[in-house]
Amino acid sequence: MDAHNQLVAGLKAALIDERTTAVFYAQMRDISRNYAGVEAFAEARKDELDHAREITELLEDLTGVTPPEAAQPVTPPSFGDYCQGLARAIQGERHAFMEYSNLINISPFARVNKALDEIRSDEEVHLAKFCKLYEIMCQANYYQTQQVNDPAVEKK
Ligand SMILES: [Fe+2]
């Protein structure tokens, strides 16, 4: 596959991922029990919807048509409790950051790379907020010790 086709395929996968994540984050927002959780997930959901719109536009420019991935139904991941959802969100943000970095590496288009770099920066903000939320909400004795070690989130 040449770079153009590889980029189009990667952007289509990213588009599905963004739209799926937006649905997932609405669920996380609605079950959050403190302001920090609502704030982090409401903001991240809005960003993911913006990303989906931007990626749709990039694909329209690259291919000349609106990709079917912009409208196909998506199913959010299932998760157990809030902390499991949060761990999943953290994993997803790390994954998204890596995927965008890969796409930037293969893309020869300055406009695409600028857009993806901005999207990647948003994912970095989400990751930082979710990691802190995980420490506060999901690690025992956070307020007692104020000592934070490596978060108990599996790294990929
Ligand atoms: Fe995103």
Automatic annotation (TrEMBL):
Gene3D superfamilies registered for this protein in UniProt: 1.20.1260.10
Domain Rubrerythrin diiron-binding: residue ranges: 11-134
Name of this chain's protein: Rubrerythrin diiron-binding domain-containing protein
InterPro entries assigned: Ferritin-like (IPR012347), Ferritin-like_SF (IPR009078), Rr_diiron-bd_dom (IPR003251)
CDD domains per the UniProt record, alphabetical: Ferritin_like (cd00657)
Provenance organism: Desulfotomaculum nigrificans (strain DSM 14880 / VKM B-2319 / CO-1-SRB) (Desulfotomaculum carboxydivorans)
MF terms in GO: metal ion binding; oxidoreductase activity
Domain of life: Bacteria
